[in-house]
Write a structure and sequence with these properties.
252 residues, DNA-binding, homodimer
Amino acid sequence: MVRDLLTEPSHEELAEFLDEQLRLGGALVQVVAECEVLYSGRAASVAEAGEYVVLVKADGSVQVQGPRGVKPVNWQPQTDRLDVALEEGVAVLVAERFTPAEFVRVAFHRPALALALELGENGNFLLMGTEAEMQRALAQDPTIIEPGLTVLDMELPTDVGGIDLFARDVAGRLVVVELKRGKATHEAVHQLNRYVQSVRAVVGDAEVRGILAAPAVTAPALNRLGALGLEFREVTALPLVESGPEQVGLFG
Amino acid sequence: MVRDLLTEPSHEELAEFLDEQLRLGGALVQVVAECEVLYSGRAASVAEAGEYVVLVKADGSVQVQGPRGVKPVNWQPQTDRLDVALEEGVAVLVAERFTPAEFVRVAFHRPALALALELGENGNFLLMGTEAEMQRALAQDPTIIEPGLTVLDMELPTDVGGIDLFARDVAGRLVVVELKRGKATHEAVHQLNRYVQSVRAVVGDAEVRGILAAPAVTAPALNRLGALGLEFREVTALPLVESGPEQVGLFG
DNA sequence: ACATGAATATTGGAT
DNA sequence: ATCCAATTTTCATGT
């Protein structure tokens, strides 16, 4: 797993290490150092000299991790070119990307550790409780939303986006359902409203209902929902451990 | 910078190392190992046995980095409790968070490396080209958007959100300006439209214009903009290296 | 390559 | 604590 490890490397040693490991490829290269980071592209940023952990993955992605938080201080998701050089005796890494045009430049002023790791194949990854799962479960059994509901379509395209679930209620009215896997905000309400308006514009004066289905709504969103004549239905995307009387779990 | 380093630790050594370093605090603790990761909370996920780099920062944030991409395979932004244990001879880290209730559980099946790093103070960080900067620059000189424009308000609250810039044009008409630091999508168009509708509802029949100011728009967004009677103005948030004749740079 | 939308989004600020 | 909007969002997906 550990391909190579250098402690307190000199600038020359670090530059050679990086050059060799990146040329070899296939490794996750990591440098712990006091460094200075520049970014220019979609925005521009400067991180003055500080101690960071720099990760360079096999796909060329670069991230500069600081002492706190999940988000890196600087990063680049994918790079088309990686370059290592000694500039005025300091090892420098430049990661460049063409579309969009941007780059990250890390100057390793005081290297403390350099690592090359081979992570090999990783196992399967399973995520449960996504919106897609919720959609499938509700399409399978739309009565979870409301008794008598029948699904007409999923991801039905309109001129303002795709309708998550398009259905007909027990009274024959068309129903637009907007799903959210988490707490729904007013953005979800506006999204739903656009879909309902769009459907109304097509079917004319036929009655069209709009339902926001989510585990929760923010208070302002619920107000707006009512003001627009739309409805809310509590639906949970995750398996429930303890199900209250009002709650509806897809896997309950 | 490197407080401690273990290569090929036994499960017992790793557990002790983690326990000690996390109790001591102030360090970025890292483990390279074949491990299995569980997450449960806002969603649920399982990462089957694979080789990962696990970072535990001083603020309790945990991230499990895989061989590719900037985004971790599993993570937790902040944790209220970190727990290390030996379960059936395997070192296990559990990071728990109370609000929202969630946890990540990492079982280090085959540890290869353990690190404790002290990152110390990091220097200043400067980000340029944010929307806030763009807003300030345009409020300072709104003629960048259009000659004769005078700013009435910034972040003016309406019942559907805050208007980035509220202005009056040379003909005395009210102007709602929505800013985007990147390419504007149809969501930005709908946002702008909501603000314009909201202003119209208040001022009655007075004429209200809506301008979307961004460095670029997607083609569908531009179509919708036209259909709604709104306008687009190209404005760049970043300093321009080479400014074309039609372009307007805030720092040009 | 472009557009779209989800995400365990994260993060910071305002209320 | 809640809500809201920006983000170098990233990332997968469809066209």
